[in-house]
Amino acid sequence: MNKTKLVNLPSDYQIPERDSDKTPILEARHLGIDFGGLTAVDNFNMAIGRTEIAGLIGPNGAGKTTVFNLLTKVYQPTRGTILLDSKDTAGMNTEQVNRAGIARTFQNIRLFDKLTVEENVKVGLHNSTLYNMFDGILRTPRYWSKEKVAHERALELLSIFDMQGMANQKAGSLPYGAQRRLEIVRALGTNPSLLLLDEPAAGMNPSETAELMDNIQKIRDTFMIAIMLIEHDMSLVMNICEGIAVLNYGKIIAKGTPEEIQANPAVIEAYLGKQKEDE
To answer: Domain limits at 145?
Structure first.
């Protein structure tokens, strides 16, 4: 289990001690969204250190994916503030937030099935593609030069998951676990400072989950970025996450280290239900 020490910031957030000399990569302040008369997320407050692996957990329907959709501007918040690298993301759309530094994966895999593995990764490299439509149509020397760089970068990213040998396979032909890994690689291609993983271990067997856990830590250590994941596999969460927030009915009911979360009565009640007292 992760033994990282969390420290309190003046703003009453907690981040890993090693990140405490730098501003958090993400701050969500009093974030909320209403759908009609329904409040889906309310008063969500959280900070993520620049190299933190953070967890967002909670029962089904707690609002976890809605939080990811708010952070990436799939939904525009009804209220609250999102600071990315100390910059307010108000008014940004999904593409602008991605260019600013947030990349994500989804609960349901969203690959281009008929494109190759390498082509899917190149889609993620759009933020660093430096040729224009004219170059692309006429296949100018500039185009071929940038394509060579993109090819090498795609293979480099695929090697994180030892997938470079699959570069020419159709994405839709890959086994489920490999498709999950490819989606992460494509997200990394956008060069994020914060990577959001929505149930990355869903559908994986125990050995694949163990490998994923190693690779999430490898990604953080290689790219020195922050990672935030939604996950129902508590073994994965408790072993790699440093700070964990627990969401229930759209509100945070607990925050802390894995040890603190496991011992928190409110968390136990949210997952297991309130136990009747002995008469």
So the answer is: 111-177
